[in-house]
Task: structure prediction
Amino acid sequence: MAIDFTLAPEHEEIRRRVRAFIQETVIPAVKEFDDEGKVTSRQEYIHAILELRGKAQAEGLWLPHMPKEWGGMGLGHVELAMVQSEAAKTRLGPWILNCAAPDEGNMHTLLHWGTDEQKEKYLRPLLQGVKMSCFAMTEPEVAGSDPTLIRTNAVKDGDEWVINGHKWFISNARRASFAILIAKTEFDVPEGSRGANTAFLVDLPQEGWNDVREVETMHGSTGHSEIVITDLRVPDSQILGGRGNGHRLGQYRLGPARLAHCMRWISQAETALDMMVDRALNRYSHGSLLADKQGIQWLIADSAMELYQCKLMVLHAASKIDKGEDFRTEVSMAKHFVANSLNRIVDRAIQVHGALGYSTDTPLAHMFQHARWARFADGADEIHQMRIAERTIAAYQATGSTNAATGGLPL
Result:
């Protein structure tokens, strides 16, 4: 089985163009805005970002994850990995190319599950960059890693559904024109059934959708809302993907979305490693540069090895998605490993920078705050470990070998 991650010449050219656009156009333009918590002029911030989005469209660097017939670049997941990693050299890069979460995952979901009418009403504006969206699944009362426990419920009333419930950590809710809302609609199925939930398209703002607050996190209050839903009425035509398919739809959305997060995290980890090496080459202490000290060399070596593993895992998982193969185990492994590696590599970079790294004079402190989120976003570490173990055991039981659960590689 050949495994070749060499990019075709046309894709290598795209990578070069994305890198040049991010480094030469985006980063200089957003240097005052890259930390949203420090933005002093909201109007200036919005103007700058929208201007950059227009330039991305003009450069043909828009929607790298979407098919060409929908205005995208038509890239596979292997090619998308290099675009996402280049874009994520700045926090705003993926958003400027219109391939940032949660809109990116919602675009995939609408394209796959939406009716023609739903695609025109909801998908088209997302692709054009004139509207934003959110995905409302997580709830405070139950474990977010187990969607079968969702308590938000929808009851049929004629041609409408009446929805009541409680959601939180709904990213982008305050900016969204619509939500994909997951609610329980089937009450006569066994507890834990994956056929109990349904996805609804909810126009925002709307009576019954009450945005209570933005939840304050380690990196501030930047768009994760708590929502109380009270007698929200939604027409039957607003069901997305069919009644009882909410769990399947959510898992379809989360698989590639997890890998897209990994692509962006790799970029952040690489930035941290670059900063670590640069610091080591320029900081003199106790008779030599830090780069000459074995303890620092180990930190650099461990980070380089982990980053190499991250890149290979993401590329292999992406190749399985492109081939239409079962990618669940590989994506779970990549998501777990890359998230943890990001935390370790940024932490080492902070250590090499000393007190400077702990300050906000470099981006490392802010990167570390964001990195901690990676270990539970789109599935906590422990959930992925549980699924990986289950599939490893199942592979052995089925074939007498665990090879299929470790990438199915020819060695």
